Amino acid sequence: MSGSESVDADAEADPEARMEALLADVEDCLDALGEARERRDAVEERIADVGEDSVVEAADAYRKAVRLLDRYEDSATGTGDFQAYVEFQDRFLGLVEDLPESVPASEAFEAAAERMDRRRLSDDDFAGARADLEPAGEYVDLLDRREETEEALSKARRDAKLRLSDLDDAIESREEVLAFADADLDAPVEELREPIAAYNEAVREEFVTFYESASIAAVIGLLERAESFPLVDFRSPPRDLRQFARESPDADEPVPTLLEYAEYTGSKLDHYAEDPAALQTNVAVHRTFLERLSADPLSIALPPPSAGTLRAWAVEAISLLGRFASEETVARLREVRDLTRREDYADLRFALRAHEELDAATRERVQTGAVAAELDRLRDARERLATALDESESAAAQTGSG
Q: Which of 373, 308, 319 lies closest to 341, judged by CA?
């Protein structure tokens, strides 16, 4: 797993600066969540004042009226198509007549109907009817604003949940840093490190072989298959690469070969590729994506994740390894997976983390109380953000039930 649960985010850079950046993001999330709620609530209050059904009815009538104006403007004006003129008047005036008196902006519909109830219609009449209907168009805008504010609020909630996850990681890392003083630094961590290192080396070598020798169709097929296994974090291939892998006569060539061909021009490319245009259009433009493919999503970080997380990831990874890896490599991963069932796995993992992460600077931060102070601030930020998110979701549930 390339995404470790380690404290490398705090160990590789200034931990205090990283924490301040995270806390600033939390404040931004709180502001965005509050502002999005206020905008959504204002729109909902306006709709409630008018009445949900009335707003929908006015907006629907406005859309139908405008569609009729757009459809018949050319044919029902002047001395053109008399049948179109009759049909338009029948449908437009009938639409307005069928509206209940209680519909919002009823005067707008009546004004437009009165304008269009004449023997001959001009372009100015249609323009005037659109102007007459503008007050009713506000209800369409109101429903559009409802959708926009709901989307903004949903985004604010998603961002808040992501920041909660970041806070949880930061809190966990500091809790564990504070506990590292109790770690058994003499524990046999090599019993964990060495099998993981052996698996990582094997899977990386075999992935390179697969990448360099298998067809691009096979490589893209692996990435498409990985979409069914979200714990293995391969990037999804672009749509045009998928199409190339399925349809191009050159899709049986390996990725490096196609990238080399993509550098050719003119008659030289014509000599090597059966479909030069498709290769240039679908492969060359995604050179960076293809060159960055690696076995990282199928590798295990050191220190490794928790037992449950690693076991769940291993189930998905094994399903993908069958596409290119040897039985020996799969067996190595199963061996690592089985290590998570050891009673001392958590202790070994903890000791390994202490070896990897508890450097002199970290020990000093623990001794001065800096880590404990950071932990207090992070917990406070998490509590405030979680409360705001809960209140937002509770309010949304009440609005929906209302």
A: 308
Phi (first) and psi of residue 304, to 5 degrees: -75, 165
DSSP structure string for 48-115 = HHH-HHHHHHHHHHHHHHHHHHHHHTTTSSTTS-HHHHHHHHHHHHHHHHTS-TTSTTHHHHHHHHHH
How far apart are alpha carbons 401 and 378 in whole angstroms? Answer: 34
E-strand ranges in 223-276 read none
User: Are 205 and 344 found together in one domain?
Assistant: yes
Number of domains in the chain: 2
Q: Kindly report, residue by residue over 62-103, the tens digit of the pLDDT.
A: 888 888 888 877 777 766 668 887 888 888 888 888 888 788
Based on the domain organization, do 152 and 200 belong to the same domain?
Answer: no
Asked if 130 and 66 touch (Cβ cutoff 8 Å), the reply is yes
Three-class secondary structure of residue 162 per DSSP: helix
Across 53-62, 69-78, 314-323, 374-383, least confident range: 69-78
* 340 touches 147 (CB < 8 A): no
Domain range holding 112? 15-163+388-402
Give the Cα separation of 397 and 402 in Å (integer). Answer: 8
Report the candidate in 217, 268, 43 with the shortest Cα–Cα distance to residue 146.
Answer: 43
Give the tens place of pLDDT for each residue, 327-367.
999 999 999 999 999 999 999 998 888 888 778 788 778 87
Pair 154, 22 in one domain = yes
Lowest mean pLDDT among 118-122, 218-222, 326-330, 393-397: 393-397
For residues 279-295, average pLDDT: 88
pLDDT for position 4: 39
pLDDT at 401: 45
| Separation CA 314–CA 294 (nearest Å) | 17
Residues 6+ apart with CB under 8 A from 73: 123, 126
Give the Cβ contact number of residue 219 at 10 Å: 23
